[in-house]
User: Fold these one by one.
Assistant:
Number 1:
Amino acid sequence: MSELTIGPDTQVTLHFAIELADGALVDSTFNKTPATFVVGDGNLLPGFEQALFGLKMGDEERLQIKPELGFGQPNPDNIQRMPLSGFDPEADLSPGMMMSFADANGSELPGVIDRIEGEQVYVDFNHPLAGRDLYFKVSILAVNPAPEKLQ
């Protein structure tokens, strides 16, 4: 009997690290509890899942994830112009500064100050990893059939 490989209808337990091209670490489970997910459950972006297809227990890989399969390309429409008067006058605004904003539903939404021009502040609401090549280091600990879906 052949070993089960990662694909649809599998549950995977793994350690992972996400790194930038320069080696900067974004996230890792290697010194924590491993991650477990069912392929297609939404816990991993589809591009990360697809990169794992065909791997089996015991495999260790470093996989390149292009922006289109990761967090996408930056969308210029996600840079919003806001009046400087709408910000706390005590805030020391500067490009690169991350701030929390409320979206239309009142949920927290992170944004990064892109630039300040006169009385206008441009805030970038793109995901911070948009447009970046990522490296997905994985160590596959287990691959099992997915548990039956609850009816």
Number 2:
Amino acid sequence: MIIIRGKKVLISLGGTFEPIDSVRGITNKSSGKMGLALAKQAYILGADVTLIVANVSVRISPLFDVIHVETSKEMANVIFEIVGDYDIFISTAAVSDFEVVQRKNKKIDSESSLSIDLKPTLKIIRQIKKINPDIFLVGFKAEFNITREEIIGCARKQISDAGTDLVVANDVSRKDCCFGSDNNEVLIIGDDVLTVPLATKDEIAKTIMNVISKRVSCR
């Protein structure tokens, strides 16, 4: 394996939380396990690792520099401020696609009828290469109950839209690969497609970091 010792690696992980009122919000089931597994592997390989952490169900080691965020906007602001200083950005976070148009600054009465207006959030990953054109950018695509060809198509679209160098994609409809599971089965998509069969997320992380290391060394 080609070591990425000394490279500055930024990893986002967890699920964002978009407030509806003072106590409720929109979120997702992302656990942060995949992002943390990648962080551990990058650290083992000698990288200088910084984590941007949203809502997670894992314990983050004090070995890492950590920046905590909650909303997609907070995550975007932090990433845009610092990403110019990094060599590699691995975007594993499950960032909400929508946010509430007008958040209530009190708890909404639970006996009231409620409708919520939503608007799309900024696609963070599409801004990264505009800020740091030389960064090695890795995106993640979690799809639900679609074919392998459709997953690859979604990944190729992200590569086209955001300039990602690699996309790691999987189908979270599978019980053994859903959000929060300890295992995964992924496709690593760049110039070609590498199928990584079902394994623990730690093993998946080793394979992903191996591919990243080889690609970075060829630049």
